[in-house]
Amino acid sequence: MIARVVVLGLLAGSGWAQNVVHYTAKTANVKYLFATAEPVLRLKSGDILDTNTLDCFGNGLKKPGDTLSMAKGDNPLAGPFYVDEAEPGDTLAVKILDLQVDGEYGVGAFSPGFGSINSSHYTPMLGGELPERVWFYPIDHAANTATFKAMDTDFSVKIPMHPFFGCIGVAPANGEARSSIVPAEFGGNMDSPEASVGNTVYFPVNVKGGLLYLGDGHAAMGDGEAAGSAIEVPLKARVQVSVIKGRRIDWPQFENDDAIMTVGAYRPLEDATRIALTELVHWIHKDYGLSELDAYELLSKVGKIHLNEMVDPNYVVVASIEKKYLPAKKKP
Amino acid sequence: MIARVVVLGLLAGSGWAQNVVHYTAKTANVKYLFATAEPVLRLKSGDILDTNTLDCFGNGLKKPGDTLSMAKGDNPLAGPFYVDEAEPGDTLAVKILDLQVDGEYGVGAFSPGFGSINSSHYTPMLGGELPERVWFYPIDHAANTATFKAMDTDFSVKIPMHPFFGCIGVAPANGEARSSIVPAEFGGNMDSPEASVGNTVYFPVNVKGGLLYLGDGHAAMGDGEAAGSAIEVPLKARVQVSVIKGRRIDWPQFENDDAIMTVGAYRPLEDATRIALTELVHWIHKDYGLSELDAYELLSKVGKIHLNEMVDPNYVVVASIEKKYLPAKKKP
Amino acid sequence: MIARVVVLGLLAGSGWAQNVVHYTAKTANVKYLFATAEPVLRLKSGDILDTNTLDCFGNGLKKPGDTLSMAKGDNPLAGPFYVDEAEPGDTLAVKILDLQVDGEYGVGAFSPGFGSINSSHYTPMLGGELPERVWFYPIDHAANTATFKAMDTDFSVKIPMHPFFGCIGVAPANGEARSSIVPAEFGGNMDSPEASVGNTVYFPVNVKGGLLYLGDGHAAMGDGEAAGSAIEVPLKARVQVSVIKGRRIDWPQFENDDAIMTVGAYRPLEDATRIALTELVHWIHKDYGLSELDAYELLSKVGKIHLNEMVDPNYVVVASIEKKYLPAKKKP
Amino acid sequence: MIARVVVLGLLAGSGWAQNVVHYTAKTANVKYLFATAEPVLRLKSGDILDTNTLDCFGNGLKKPGDTLSMAKGDNPLAGPFYVDEAEPGDTLAVKILDLQVDGEYGVGAFSPGFGSINSSHYTPMLGGELPERVWFYPIDHAANTATFKAMDTDFSVKIPMHPFFGCIGVAPANGEARSSIVPAEFGGNMDSPEASVGNTVYFPVNVKGGLLYLGDGHAAMGDGEAAGSAIEVPLKARVQVSVIKGRRIDWPQFENDDAIMTVGAYRPLEDATRIALTELVHWIHKDYGLSELDAYELLSKVGKIHLNEMVDPNYVVVASIEKKYLPAKKKP
């Protein structure tokens, strides 16, 4: 059954009425797959969605002393949200309008068998494992910080918060269903700090309705998500969905006023980087009119490459270029 | 024969007299190997070296229309500079005090068989090769910009200059001699934008005197140096060398007032990243007193990973953390 | 609906009666996912299944001159076959009793964007693409050969046939559904020549009934499946399924009278190899009683590593050791 | 000084007189670099060299109980041997005529920080290290076996010997000098079982005289040399050198009566494999006249890929095809 709850309101700064749709994610209604599934809500292109997300542990770790055995699943997802106009071959744009960290603690964890520089499921090694560890990060909402408190010494330090969705994606192509820990062509567990306020993320639409999923809020994360977790938090979120008819993309993209960004989500890192770079060359060529060789050369001088994470089943790299370095966009 | 030319002078801002040693690199005296070789100059720990470097083409491409066949060697190096106190097991610190782009043009080039997303020497593919291309970047010293001019359209755009050494390194360990296109444990062709004014780079001393080499100036470069070249320029450079006795490091490091940074220079990118991250965990543990697991966790929240290049015989990644996130440094 | 057709018969060489179950795969009943789906047949542990498989093109390319546009899907699968006793945590054993190439032609194809040494979907490059090509291999059943006929010269040569399943696998864990071009923990498109007569392949049971799928017959294949295809053929197949209760494995394994073999199916090749090697060390340790270090040392002297393919979404490596180098198997 | 000792003799089976030159390697005259160095002997094209090699530990571990601290260097090399006619642009052919294991023990060792599935220098991980271990392999010359004796149980097993050079190579190009633990374009520490009796190995000649080095005898080795060592032995060796004027190759090759084989020696394994495969496609195209696409297709059906080792600074892969699958060789 597809519910639909709409609140009409005058959005601050928008100057005109838009649909604002509310949804509440809870343990009982989350998903653990990016897949075709019964939508929890139906949206129209242009609608604004107000929702929340549970943290990657299903909000199971609540206070210092709690352990990973108390986690309720990995990366529970809010959704799927069905967008009326979206059909295979279109692009779904999700503009991130607001993200608020929800709660008094963020959680960081080292989970044996997961991480960039220890024996892991897909890079197994013989030799001793590091032990499980959980760190709690007290959150100061007024100061917008989370505090790291060392486990083995009495050091602590405040970290500015930059909230983003660790998980944001749609139903995969070809009928695949992928675990919520996987990033790939459909987005998913990209762990991209680019999935934050002010940015729009584009996804290929693979099934009718697109089927958007959100989850795995991060209050802050280092490049590579080295030890396997960010400051994991529940989020309150506001996003606007819209459908770009007839624009076909192969991999997720980000855009804001200043830059265009492409995502490569695969292993090894070389291939993730090659995907992001070739996608960016193609985008510049197609929409901004530079030849492929000129675009390649220009990226070699001003392009950016951001290693989002090197711990998930696929690794994620974002390549980008600031628009100030590009010609005016071609008329469609 | 080891020449030694010293000029005593009061350095601006230093408040006390230091040796300033001058050296002029030219086609006749450059090297193409990081290796043990007869030094061109002898320095003392604390000396300031004023020198210049040729561009990666040996200054062979001078004006629009010139082609890669006019290049005089790859990455000619100024040096080696012998530092009196440096012995195996020490660390050589090179503080970069000043870098000035020398000349009216920078050069960018696509050379078939070299680049991150085309068939290359070590990642060979069947299928058509892209053609050779050379771009000239007019330099505006007053505005501190170089101008990209598209080859296939009439678009042009100004790029702010951030000059750095593409090549900076010492003689390798174990008697090895490595081409000036190679980055590895000894530094070398790291293509690290971190090798710029305000930063100090540390190298392991592998042979008596350390044997510092400099070259391959870049006026600006995108992450990954995607198409295989930066804005290639000759440089005028001022650096200060000093020897840290008894500090042994395995890979190059950078440091400035704000951050500590480690270098991984190998293939694949995963291994370069693992080297940089483990070196950074060890550094934080050793000098700042966090346990390895706390350091690992902290990097997972605030660490930075910078993909310098993915085109040279080894790939280079710099991992870093801002000092504001670290405890006070331990007394030695 | 689960059909069940059983023929009781005295199997040649077995000396006692076993169930032989027949199933016919055709275009109308194939699947394109390794996933939970309605079974086409129910088997009991110990049953023998007589079935057939379509070739990877859905038998769409029939004669010289036919092109890839005539393919009907990629890797259509016979199945799923439900095995009564199989429950999560068990191991499903599939013994391959007989494989016969079905038809007068095998097909080889180069498909742009797929292959080990050309620009591909996950290793994209700029530069010219190779063109599509299809080769037909006349089959001589009496001589057990398929004939390669060069496209650009008049050379031809006979290749001995060694038929095997390119696809053999079960429903994945965690509710995932994976395309029939993917190999991973559940087996799948492993393109393992080890999936041939005389060998038993073991899979982790992830869902009730296990859900076995078969397809993508190969008459012969080179290591790495370099250009992206084998000699693709329909097969007539006879396999015996059995359930090993309470034996839990993480990755597929092969076994025959002479050797034990482990599968690593991931990217990069290093990780696929690490998975296969660590799994083999653990197997030797657990079932044959050598310490892990002794097992590691022994593999370093007599282990085998077989690169099955380097073209699919994951790469597949099989590591093995001959039983003659192992102690007697421990009593369970 | 270049010594030259020639013995004229009628070689068994050759039917005509050839120069046989003797050389004795000992601790005092070995090298640890593939590099330009003063030759120890001058040969003529066609000469046969009788020599010996020390094991990879400099023959420093002699009996059970000895430890790695008693090793005298890594991979001491006999040579360099200068071949009169060899000039840059030529190919040096080394035919391996005889290899005899010298001594009563072979040695296997696990050295912390080295190996394919444990934390290593270039793939560093946090977590516990495996401990150093040394295994001694009693050799039975009559039976041509070496015996593995488990350390932690009383199991032992005989392993057939297949002696080969772990190290065989020439001086690198561009003035580089590389450690004797490195395999690359110049050959070197390839750890290729293909470097055994009956095979000819080809090297690019980079410097006048070629400068052949030999060492690191292996009595037997598993694919991948997983734990970092083979059954390490001193060898007595007989090889014949010859110069192929004007044939230019980029990477080492092997050949025997039955097959042609190409070497890729780099990281990651994907790139090593790509190098070997593209070199093989080019070789088949150039010398046997198939088009590149036909060659690529044929390799996809009958090519072999052998992972020699995944532990050295570069990984080594040998790709091959049996000559029976190729057209007649083109007349030069």
Write structural notes for this entry:
The first copy, chain A, has 332 residues and is mainly beta. The radius of gyration of chain A is 20 Å and the shape is globular. The first copy, chain A, folds into two domains: 6-102 and 161-244, Jelly Rolls (Sandwich), CATH 2.60.120.580; 253-325, Acetamidase/Formamidase-like domains (Endonuclease I-creI), CATH 3.10.28.20. Helix content of chain A is 9%, strand content 37%. A ten-stranded mixed beta sheet of chain A has the order 1-2-5-18-7-16-19-20-22-21. A six-stranded mixed beta sheet of chain A has the order 4-6-17-12-15-14, with no helix packed on it. In chain A, strands 8-9-10-11 form a four-stranded antiparallel beta sheet, with no helix packed on it. Chains in contact: A-B, A-C, A-D, B-C, B-D, C-D. The interface between C and D is large, with 60 and 59 residues.
Observed structural traits:
Jelly Rolls; disordered N terminus; six-stranded mixed beta sheet; homotetramer; mainly beta; 332 residues; Endonuclease I-creI
Helices and strands, with pairings:
The structure is a homotetramer of 332-residue chains.
Chain A: E1 6-10, E2 17-22, E3 33-34, E4 41-43, E5 48-53, E6 77-83, E7 91-101, E8 105-110, E9 133-140, E10 145-149, E11 156-160, E12 164-169, E13 178-179, E14 183-184, E15 187-188, E16 200-204, E17 212-218, E18 235-244, E19 253-255, E20 259-266, H1 269-288, H2 292-302, E21 304-309, E22 315-322
Parallel strand pairs in A: 2-5, 4-6
Antiparallel strand pairs in A: 1-2, 3-13, 5-18, 6-17, 7-16, 7-18, 8-9, 9-10, 10-11, 12-15, 12-17, 14-15, 16-19, 19-20, 20-22, 21-22
Helix pairs in contact in A: 1-2
